[in-house]
Amino acid sequence: MSLSDLAYGAYERRLLKRLDPERLPHHVGAIVDGNRRWAKDARIDLETGYRAGAAKVDEFLEWCHDLGVGTVTFWVLSTDNLNRPGSELASILAAVEALVDRLSADGRWRVRLLGSLDLLPAESADHLRRAADASTTDAAMQVNVCVGYGGRQELTDAMRSLLLEESAKGRSLEEVARTLEVDHIAEHLYTKGQPDPDLVIRTSGEQRLSGFLLWQSVHSEFYFSDVLWPAFRRVDLLRAMRSYASRERRFGA
After folding, report:
1. What are φ and ψ of residue 166, in 5° steps?
2. Would 8 be classed as within a structural domain?
3. Catalytic residue among 20, 33, 58, 198
4. So what's the pLDDT on residue 137?
5. I need a labelling partner for 126 at 20 to 30 A (CA). Which of 20, 56, 111, 114 fits?
């Protein structure tokens, strides 16, 4: 073990010791950005880069589990990513399918897919649905995997679902508009029944949400890391947790 590894190990232990378990987030969202740049910097092919990014999800979950986090949401494929060249999209989907297979087979996670799966190639969408459905319902942690996800798409789908439901009840558009409340829309989001994220982490140095959980993150705390996702370490997560624990959450007040 190198001196650098020993130093980071000691630093991790100090960070962990100073974290107050009562001030840690219950739901962590992660925008896992930087796979392509990491692969380019490492001079390896994109497929290997995406597989490395997917493998980092497994590590991240272990770290969150050890910290007592109840829900983790990963954004692994956006609606914009669906416009990538065919070979690159195929590499991303292959990595995502293998990831969801692993998470579902683990036995500790309840896996849920968030996104418009109908936008994916039919074979991939069917594969992902079957894998997620096979995950345990009696799990210590809820794991959401955002695939074919876009914040605007989610709100569009929520409103469409709401209007179709109300129409089936025989209600007119005017009646729906007159009685519409915030909670009515929330009941049709992909995350229905789940708590909103307390902390959203984005890697790779980008400081924007890009549409991630637009509705749900209105009161979230944000942490932006310069580290590319495949290189993200436990110490980076602990730094994010330290930052979160030091903040006074006002929930819009």
Report:
1. -70, -35
2. no
3. 33
4. 84
5. 56
Composition of the chain by helix, strand, coil, percent to 5: 55, 15, 35
Query: Could you list the residue range(s) of the whole structural domain that residue 122 is in?
Result: 24-150+196-242
The one-letter amino acid at 192: K
Shortest CA distance to 232 belongs to which of 201, 187, 253, 208?
201
In a domain, 59, yes or no: yes
Instruction: Return the CATH number at 102.
Output: 3.40.1180.10
As a whole number of Å, the end-to-end CA separation of the chain is 48
Report pTM.
0.93
CB 91 within 8 A of CB 124: no
Rounded to 5°, angle at Cα 26 from 49 and 102: 35
Q: What are 90-146's pLDDT values in tens digits?
A: 999 999 999 999 999 999 999 999 999 999 999 999 999 999 999 988 888 999 999
Give SS3 for 224. Answer: strand
- pLDDT (0 to 100) of residue 13: 84
Q: Establish whether 33 is a catalytic residue.
A: yes
What is the rounded average pLDDT of the residues 29-37? 95
Active-site residue among 80, 81, 144, 236? 81
On whether residue 126 sits in a domain, the answer given is: yes
d(CA 115, CA 153): 8
Q: Give the integer Cα–Cα distance in Å for 186 and 139.
A: 24
Note whether residue 51 is domain-resident.
yes
In the chain, the number of structural domains is 1
DSSP, res 250: -
